[in-house]
Specification:
Layout (H helix, E strand, L loop, with lengths): L1 E3 L46 H5 L8 E2 L2 H10 L2 E7 L4 H11 L2 H10 E7 L4 H15 L2 E3 L1 E5 L5 E5 L4 H17 L1 H16 L12 H13 L16 H14 L2 H16 L13 E2 L7 E2 L2 E2 H18 L2 H17 L10 E2 L2 E2 L2 E2 L7 H7 L2 H10 E2 L21 E2 L11 H15 L6 E2 L2 E2 H18 L2 H17 L1 E2 L2 E7 L2 E5 L2 H18 L2 H18 E2 L4 E2 L24 H16 L2 H20 L5 H11 L3 E6 L3 H9 L5 E5 L21 E6 L2 E2 L6 H8 L7
Parallel strand pairs: 2-4, 3-4, 23-24
Antiparallel strand pairs: 1-5, 3-6, 6-7, 8-9, 10-11, 11-16, 12-13, 14-15, 17-19, 18-19, 19-20, 21-22, 23-25, 25-26
Length: 710
């Protein structure tokens, strides 16, 4: 099951029921993976658009969606709320549904004593964040499915993640018993926990120092797995932003170990089963230390962030296989994760036919039947495959002898582009396409689309493939048309329905994508839209007192607290992405208010970057930009050679823009003229430019200068 850790711990809070069945205990028995045919809607979810909520519409549990109807029912009936949070491609969410929520015995207990509410964490990350913080505070760990018990006024007092049916029934019984006999204590516990969660610990009195970069390197090194890369232990998650930071540290220090950690991690991840060698793209995480056995679900955000990391690794090292991996990942997204209208879908499930990973596995017999002798030999040489299979999963059936394609050291990435290995992989892809595919969560989320727009735009700049630019432009236009109407940004689009007010991550991630898109095509409409979004984000989420942003909206009365997100998780902190955007918007726009916010945010993060910079890698990218010789290069005229040379080199703190009619009125472009009709270059720092030059090679030499950390 997916797990999440959090640095905060609730100290001294006596949580009711904590002694009852708190440990995760796994009971034996078969899990029924098949829903009964002909079932009819029995709850309030049938009219929802969320794929996750619709998966539960036929449960005998009388589920409500998060909203006034559920809240009023809890108060009117004086019942506790059972809140279940998950997402449609979550394997263990499926298991808990089949094991508990489809069972009449469980439904009877819930329906009798509780108001049961289902939340799609991807639609409502603001709700998820509040109750995840509560569960982590109570138990020290968290994940999905998340199971939380609330008072009728939505305050949490007990929670966990996955429960098997027998355990869950006992928890329901004990909590209801406490509600009838110890109601005052439940309310006290809920009030104390909510007060703890409401405490604002985000302010700081110190600015960060550049020593934080070496401290981050030390922490990364201490946690590093020297054999397989990534962090020691299992499960292993692709901490892509950490790798981006290590590349910047290498650039400014020359520390060989920082680059070694990046390369070993990227190589082993792509070698492992976590990477889809047949169809491209990365799974969510590895269940083991070798990156061999993935949790097979594919998330849009992982593939966007990993693409950005592999592209930067290619820029830095010029190793061709990083380019191949980035291209295969984006081609997977274009093929399988892009709507006809241009938006990017959210995720693909780990399960097909009720079995995790079945879609991706191959038996020796299948390989021999599908491939020629030469092609089979190429597969056996390039990948670890075994007669009895290399994938053995607990609780699963239907995968006897199944092999994950896990690359051997003999795999030469270029060989995937031609010859018998290419032919073999193409045949396997064609056969696999005829299999029953995993469920696709086809909702379109503004924030995750922003990340993929950034990846597509960056890929165009680095690789020069027009398909990626067109995909980025089309996705951005889709969001502008369908999700940003009347100056009101929305979060989710599905089945022609746009809904849910945008949160901080929607504004911040989308702006990241728009800035990258502007740098890729020079079209000022993206910059104009980005500034509009920034203005609205500041108005809705900025906390003047603390110098950072709230995550959720202030006008949503259903949120018992207004939380903030500062540390990175599976995705980078929305506050840190906002900061990263602002350090770039300052020179692009010349807006002094943006610099004021940059200064305030660095101060608010100062103590955290000093004490634990490794937990704030995205903010450290912004800090690296701010402390470097950050340059903006304006090209007046046409010089594709210089433009491509800059885009294909590793200059993470350089922005290069070609002046054109659409962007000539931007602050950075004003007054930039060609000298004697020749292509002219302006090298600037925060909009203050050196004397123009017509010598492009001299400009490239200037970019090679590196400012060491102080």
């Amino acid at each position: 099951m997916t797990q999440k850790t959090h640095p905060s711990r609730l100290v001294g809070l006596v949580v009711l029921i904590l002694t009852f069945y708190m440990a995760w205990r796994y009971y034996g028995g078969e899990v029924n993976h098949i829903k009964e045919e002909g079932s009819k809607p029995m709850n309030h979810l049938a009219k929802e658009k969320s794929p996750y909520l619709l998966q539960h519409k036929d449960n005998p549990v009388h589920w409500y969606a998060w909203g006034p109807q559920a809240f009023e029912a809890a108060k009117k009936q004086n019942k506790l709320i059972f809140l279940s949070i998950g997402y449609s491609t979550c394997h263990w969410c499926h298991v808990m549904e089949h094991d508990s929520f489809e069972k009449q015995e469980v439904a009877d207990a819930l329906n009798k004593d509780y108001i049961a509410i289902k939340v799609d964490r991807e639609e409502r990350p603001d709700v998820d964040q509040i109750y995840m913080d509560a569960v982590v505070a109570m138990t020290g760990r968290g994940g999905w499915p998340m199971s939380v018990f609330l008072t009728p006024d939505l305050k949490p007092f007990y929670g966990g993640t996955f429960f098997w049916k027998d355990q869950f029934l006992k928890v329901l019984e004990k909590i209801q018993e406490a509600w009838l006999t110890q109601k005052d204590e439940i309310f006290k516990t809920a009030n104390d926990l909510t007060a703890h969660l409401s405490a604002d610990s985000t302010s700081s009195q110190n600015l960060p120092t550049q020593k934080a970069f070496m401290e981050a390197l030390h922490v990364f090194g201490a946690r590093f797995d020297p054999v397989y890369g990534g962090y020691s232990g299992a499960p292993k998650f692709p901490r892509s932003i950490d790798l981006n930071l290590l590349m910047r540290i290498f650039r400014r220090t020359g520390n060989a170990e920082s680059l070694h950690m990046v390369e070993l991690t990227l190589d082993k991840m792509a070698q492992g089963g976590m990477y889809d060698h047949v169809g491209g793209g990365f799974a969510r995480y590895s269940t083991d230390t070798k990156w061999l056995v993935p949790h097979f679900e594919k998330m849009l955000y992982d593939n966007a962030l990993l693409t950005l990391t592999y592209l930067e690794a290619y820029q830095l090292t010029k190793k061709e296989h990083y380019k191949i991996i980035a291209r295969e990942t984006l081609d997977y997204v274009l093929r399988d994760m892009t709507s006809s209208e241009g938006g990017f879908y959210s995720a693909e499930d780990a399960d097909s036919e009720g079995v995790e990973g079945k879609f991706y596995l191959w038996t020796i017999a299948e390989l021999q039947q599908i491939l020629s002798d030469q092609e089979y030999e190429a597969i056996v040489k390039a990948y670890h495959v075994q007669q009895n299979g290399n994938y053995h999963a607990e609780f699963e059936e239907g995968i006897e002898g199944g092999n994950i394609l896990y690359a051997t050291d003999n795999l030469i990435w270029d060989s995937k582009q031609s010859g018998p290995l290419k032919a073999a992989l193409q045949k396997l892809f064609e056969v696999r396409e005829k299999r029953i595919h995993p469920h696709k969560d086809d909702k379109i989320l503004t924030d995750w689309n922003g990340l993929m727009i950034a990846a597509m735009a960056k890929a165009y700049a680095v690789l020069g493939d027009e398909r990626y630019l067109e995909a980025a432009q089309k996705a951005a236009s889709f969001i502008q048309t369908h999700l940003d109407k009347h100056d009101k940004l929305l979060r989710r689009y599905r089945d022609k329905d746009a809904r849910v007010h945008a949160m901080l991550s929607d504004y911040a991630y989308l702006n990241w994508g728009l800035i990258e898109l502007f740098l890729a095509d020079g079209d000022a409409r993206w910059m104009s839209w980005a500034q509009s979004l920034q203005s609205r984000m500041d108005a809705s989420f900025w906390d003047e007192k603390s110098g950072n942003y709230f995550y959720g909206r202030g006008d949503d009365s259903s949120l018992v607290i207004r939380s903030k997100e500062l540390h990175d998780n599976a995705t980078p902190s929305a506050n840190s992405v906002a900061l990263y955007n602002l350090v770039k918007l300052v020179p692009l726009t010349g807006n002094g208010e943006y610099q004021t916010k940059v200064d305030a945010m660095f101060k608010s993060l100062g103590d955290k970057l000093i004490k634990y910079p490794a937990g704030f890698a995205m903010a450290m990218l912004a800090f690296d930009y701010e402390t470097d010789i950050s340059k903006e290069i304006v090209i007046v005229g046409d010089d594709q050679y210089i433009l491509e040379a800059i885009n294909r080199g590793f200059y993470p703190n350089i922005m290069v823009v070609s002046k054109n009619k659409s962007n000539e009125n931007l602050a950075l472009m004003k007054g930039r003229m060609a000298l004697d009709g020749k292509t002219t270059y302006y090298v600037c720092e925060k909009s203050v430019c050196n004397a123009p030059t017509i010598n492009g090679i001299d400009v490239l030499k200037q970019l090679e200068k590196v400012k060491p950390y102080e």
